[in-house]
Amino acid sequence: MAIFENNPDQWQRLDWLILQNGWTSLYWHQSVLNNDIDWFKNEKYNIIDFDCQNWTDTDQIHKDIKKELVFPDYYGENFNVLNDCLSNLEITDTGLVIVFRHFQIVNTDIAHGLLDIFARNSRLHNLFGQRLLTLVQVDNPNYQIDPVGSSPVLWNGAEWLDSKRGL
User: Fold this and answer.
1) In degrees, to the nearest 5, what angle opens at C-alpha 26 toward C-alphas 23 and 28?
2) Pairing with 32, which of 51, 110, 137, 158 sits 20 to 30 Å away (CA)?
3) Beta strand segments in 13-86, E
4) What does the domain layout of the chain look like in residue ranges?
């Protein structure tokens, strides 16, 4: 089952615009992110919103993820188990949007590993007709991260141009 119809009307949807280029979209302005979150809510997506300001170590990251994604007690608080639990995550309604705010605080290697796991699982869930997207807000308009899930991490459509991020 395809998650979109082959219809030009579908090609203007925010979810399609993000997923056509990968699994993750970057944001700088909170207002742009909030507008997109409102769009997803109107489309009946479930939203899980993380404030990453305290994510200076992996223990806090795993603690927050386990709580918000309601992972089982056996969640081993490492990236291998995160990958396993995400692959078994039940996605209902239109889909699931994971939001990471102030993500620049996360160590670059850990940030890349985390987003790569979410990208892999987004691709996996898409195979079963389920939508999983990741929106990443950073407070640095120059923020860059290596490709995740073999796809680039691009700025959202409203802030794609450097000039829209004050650069």
Assistant:
1) 165
2) 110
3) 24-27, 45-51
4) 16-158
One DSSP character per residue, 95-151 reads EEEEEEESGGGS-HHHHHHHHHHHHHHHHHHHHTT-EEEEEEE-S-TT-----BTTB
Using CA atoms, how far apart are residues 34 and 122, in angstroms rounded to an integer? 21
pLDDT along the chain (167 residues), means of 10: 72 90 94 98 98 96 96 90 95 96 97 97 93 97 92 91 93
CB of 145 closer than 8 Å to CB of 156: no
**Neighbouring-strand partners of residue 131:** 95
> d(Cα 28, Cα 142) in Å, to the nearest integer?
9
The token pair at 151 is 């796809």
What does the radius of gyration of the chain's CA atoms come to, in whole angstroms?
15
Q: What is the pTM assigned to this prediction?
A: 0.93
